[in-house]
Amino acid sequence: MVNAxxxxxxxxxxxxxxxxxxxxxxxxxxxxxxxxxxxxxxxxGTASRIARALAIEGMIRRNPxxxxxxxxxxxxxxxxxxxxxxxxxxxxxxxxxxxxxxxESVNLAAREGDESVVxxxxxxxxxxxxxxxxxxxxxxxxxxxxxxxxAFGEAGDDYVSGLPTTLEPIAPGTLATRSQLARQLEQxxxxxxxIDIEENVEGVRCVGAPVLDDEGVARAAVVLQAPAVRMRKExxxxxxxxxxxxxxxxxxxIPDPAALRAQG
Length: 264
What we know:
The protein is an alpha+beta fold. It is 44% helix and 19% strand. The chain folds into two domains: 11-75, Arc Repressor Mutant, subunit A; 87-260, 2-Layer Sandwich (Beta-Lactamase). The longest helix is centred in the last third of the chain and has 21 residues, at 233-253. It is globular. This is IclR family transcriptional regulator.
């Protein structure tokens, strides 16, 4: 990106580039400069300059053994501060309670555009589990979290109408058509929670419930994940009310649920 005169990037563009590097490291773990460049669309030289500047400020660090970069201590501090401001530190104990009572993994997710983004995660202690990380992003239509937020969100119908008639398959169980999604959203509104039967990840089934604000609008979602072998239909029906109850408790402890939703 250059300014109108074709010169150096403007201040805003420089910030956008630095944020892009931080975001790819948040989602990709430890990356080489070439990988950062590929994922951000920057040149290797630009990515390298930004990485060095961020490293000086402690936002990222270079692993001297691999010459790869990962998030640094100041990024951790910034994330912890955001958790406190948004009330996520108060939501985490509720997720842990659900995880301990079910022995399964639990997420808190929020909507960003057309994606569901993991904000908090409590990992199952069982050997057979689905590994995931905070910051992971998935399509709304293929996830229990996304469908829960669509069913109780402000612009769920607009999102659905904007989808192609045939949906892009993400996993073997992904809903095939836009009309199937619309029907499922009606069912979610009736029972209060969404399900994902290997729609986003093969072998993983999920139950998700919306975190509602005072006006009944979904600003986030609680999701319980389990391997398909442990998540039969009967167990899904048993766990649905528990996930709904946890989402309700979280809506009470988060000061401003609307702040969790970055954009519609």
